[in-house]
User: Which sequence fits this backbone?
């Protein structure tokens, strides 16, 4: 009962205080200091240099690219081996003919 | 987040700017964040009550947003997402400095020479409620002494004026959780301020 009374009194007291607080906050509203952007740019550069998280990302992209090239090269080598093994069935069984392979190799 | 409270988008849409940034346009990042920076900065400052610390946390938020914006999928509005990153960073900062509050209730009472009797006399006097400055100082100091979880939620509700739904979206929890957390936070605040309210009625 005592607690409930205290809660009631508190709510009656604190509500106008909270609205005064809100009004004060609106009056006090500040503009973001422009120098935070200058510091941000500097810090971003620093982080890129020091932690290498940016390079890490680029490195992963590079790794993906290198893997794709590697797989393509492996397929070409396998195909080349098959061409030599089964010269008779060349045109039917392989996804590249000997002449096509030559062209791809040049492009590659 | 309530569109009335979020600053209006002018020029390109947020999503267009995000796509531009994801495509490598670095300038799009600043254009986007600058739309909301004052609201964000004021929220951080309101929680910390210290300009220098607010700047540091704001920087932290910029770095986090910059790094994570590449993965932003637009599941919530950009402003809500930005605000959430800001609230979480401020929360982390408050947790770290928990043991050394910037203001204490005791110091505020001493500085303003407040006493339950003084507040009671003030409340009984004519037109004395116009300023509320003593009470505001008292509540601010008491908020400062709450743990970060309770403090953040009360500031969002009472100072920032966010609705329960908005707080739930920012904190990624249910409205029920928000309600119970606010109830508990108010209880803590009530206990801290018990000697200073209600006395006017006696």
Assistant:
């Amino acid at each position: 009962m005592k607690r409930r009374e205290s809660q009631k009194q508190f709510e009656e007291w604190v509500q106008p205080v909270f609205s005064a607080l809100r009004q004060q906050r609106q009056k006090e509203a500040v503009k973001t200091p422009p120098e935070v952007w200058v510091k941000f740019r500097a810090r971003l550069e620093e982080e890129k240099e020091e932690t290498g998280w940016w390079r890490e990302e680029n490195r992963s992209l590079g790794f993906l690219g290198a893997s794709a090239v590697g797989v393509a090269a492996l397929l070409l080598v396998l195909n080349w081996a098959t061409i030599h093994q089964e010269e008779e069935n060349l045109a039917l069984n392989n996804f590249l003919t000997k002449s096509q392979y030559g062209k791809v190799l040049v492009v590659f | 987040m309530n569109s009335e409270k979020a600053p209006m988008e002018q020029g390109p849409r947020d999503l267009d700017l995000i796509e531009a940034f994801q495509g490598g346009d670095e300038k799009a990042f600043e254009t986007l964040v600058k739309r909301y920076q004052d609201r964000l900065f004021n929220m951080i400052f309101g929680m910390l009550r210290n300009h220098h610390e607010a700047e540091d946390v704001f920087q932290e938020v910029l770095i986090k947003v910059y790094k994570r914006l590449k993965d932003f999928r637009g599941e919530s509005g950009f402003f809500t997402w930005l605000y959430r990153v800001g609230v979480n960073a401020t929360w982390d900062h408050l947790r770290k400095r928990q043991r050394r509050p910037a203001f204490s209730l005791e110091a505020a009472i001493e500085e303003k020479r407040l006493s339950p009797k003084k507040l009671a006399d003030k409340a009984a006097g004519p037109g004395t409620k116009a300023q509320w400055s003593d009470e505001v100082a008292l509540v601010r100091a008491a908020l400062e002494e709450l743990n970060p979880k309770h403090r953040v939620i009360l500031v969002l509700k009472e100072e920032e004026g966010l609705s329960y739904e908005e707080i739930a979206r920012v904190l990624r929890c249910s409205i029920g959780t928000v309600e119970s957390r606010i109830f508990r936070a108010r209880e803590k605040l009530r206990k801290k301020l018990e000697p200073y309210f209600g006395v006017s009625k006696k």
Summary: The longest helix of chain B spans residues 78-96. The mean pLDDT of chain B is 84.
